[in-house]
Amino acid sequence: PAFGLFIFTIARDPLRIIILIAGAFFWLVSLLLSSLIWFIAVKASDPQDERLQKGLLIFGVMFSVLLQEAFRFLYYKLLRKAIEGLVALSEDGCSPISIQQMAYVAGVGFGLMSGAFSMINLLADALGPGTVGIHGDSQLYFLTSAFMTMVLIFLHTFWGILFFHGCEHRRWWEIAAVIIMHLTVSGLSFCNPMYVGSLVPSYLLMAAAAAWAYLLSGGSAQNLRRFLLCKC
């Protein structure tokens, strides 16, 4: 369902496709830089010290989150300049795409690239060696990983809307909320293989972020309530 966001809302608009690909590129660069720093830190440390290695892993995850949000801010600044250029070139003085639409497409770009890398890692694990659950561990690894990938794609989409809205209206607490939610969801992954401890809170945060993004995008609380209650 998450990859359907591209097909149904972006694929028919060339400008949105360009913004999505650029957003995916920004996320990819942030991952490359954070991976490089983590790799250097691991190589420079003692590989026999398990406590240190676990600390470096936690540091790598948290640093990666902060770097992703820094690149999201840089991408916002780039798109803001792009809007000014589009307005200057248009005949009617209006941009063909709003900042809200850009926020959504940029969020989808971040989410799809994040989901693509998650699926690649999952497929690499599926190649073996060994069988999941053979030593009594949970056999739901692949299923829960798929659900976690989906929630991250949706969360990046909603975070993009919230983050851009915070930047546009200088509501820094909204930006801080996005960073805190991102850190929380990433930190919850350390609860695995107790998957309930990571999936349930992540989906609750996704529901809260979805409702918040919906309201900031112009939706009304009344319509949201009617939707949740399945009323026409």
Automatic annotation (TrEMBL):
Superkingdom of source: Eukaryota
InterPro entries documented for this protein: Aph-1
Pfam families: Aph-1
Residues annotated as transmembrane: 17-41, 56-75, 102-120, 140-165, 172-190, 196-216
Gene Ontology biological process: Notch signaling pathway; protein processing
UniProt keyword list: Membrane, Notch signaling pathway, Transmembrane, Transmembrane helix
Subcellular location: Membrane
Gene Ontology cellular-component annotations: gamma-secretase complex
Topology of the protein relative to the lipid bilayer: Multi-pass membrane protein
Keyword Glycoprotein: no
Subunit-structure text: Component of the gamma-secretase complex.
Record-stated family: Belongs to the APH-1 family.
Purpose: Potential subunit of the gamma-secretase complex, an endoprotease complex that catalyzes the intramembrane cleavage of integral proteins such as Notch receptors.
Protein name, per record: Gamma-secretase subunit APH-1
Species assigned in the record: Thryothorus ludovicianus (Carolina wren)
